[in-house]
Amino acid sequence: MIRQELRDFVDDVLDAGRVSERDVRRLAAEILAGGVARRAEVDALAALDRLIGDRHPSWDDTFVDLVVAHVVAGAAAGGQVERDVVNWLITTLDAAGAMTDNGLRIAIEVTRAANHVDQTLMTFVLQTMQARRPLAGGGMDRAAPVSATPDRDQPLDAAA
Q1: Pairwise CA distance, residues 63 & 27, whole Å
Q2: Helix, strand, or coil here: 146?
Q3: Kind of pairing, strands 116-117 and 80-81?
Q4: According to the model, what pLDDT value does residue 95 have?
Q5: Per the structure, how many domains does the chain have?
Q6: Residue 138: per-residue pLDDT
């Protein structure tokens, strides 16, 4: 369940088809001034990040900061982001294989900000970055499938 103000914000942005600078300021200063309270709110923001291509540049940092703060603040004692949180985060950020650049930034920033993260997130970040490696022609290889969990039957130090 997400708070009504955020639900209205999502509806307004979807209707407009864009996230304006005013929208970002309203989101950060009014709607989520105290931060994200629930996973469902992150899910809603991540959906906007995937669906709305016309976004003011301030959206990127605001979205990333809100999600990272939520994940790290909700970490277990000692700043440990446990596997169930990591699995939810990966599922949210990579819904239907549509990982955005902001989604990747969030995953990277969580690994930096937390004292410890389950290795699944680190593996996911590395595999996603590898799948997006620059091609010889200057484009990005985004077609390579990325598994959210490492092959448990293969040793971690096995060559890819």
Answers
A1: 9
A2: coil
A3: parallel
A4: 87
A5: 1
A6: 56
Predicted confidence at residue 135, as pLDDT, reads 58
* Closest CA relative to residue 146, chosen from 109, 112, 120, 113: 120
Q: Does residue 126 sit within a domain? A: yes
Closest CA to 128 of 108, 112, 113, 111: 108
Examine residue 77 and state whether it is found in any structural domain, yes or no. yes
Is residue 75 a part of any domain in this protein? Answer: yes
pLDDT, block means (10 residues), the chain with 160 residues: 94 97 97 95 96 96 97 83 94 88 96 92 92 65 42 41
Rounded Cα gap, residues 154 and 96, in angstroms: 25
Is 147 part of a structural domain of the chain?
Answer: no
Cβ within 8 Å of residue 2, ≥6 positions away: 10, 38, 40, 41, 44
pLDDT at 1: 82
Q: What is the dihedral of CA 114, 117, 120, 124, to 10 degrees?
A: 20
Classify residue 131 by its DSSP letter: H
Looking at the DSSP assignment, which residues form a beta bridge with residue 117? 81
Tell me how long the chain is.
160
| Structural domain boundaries, residue 43 | 4-131
How far from the centroid of its chain's Cα atoms is residue 88's Cα? 10
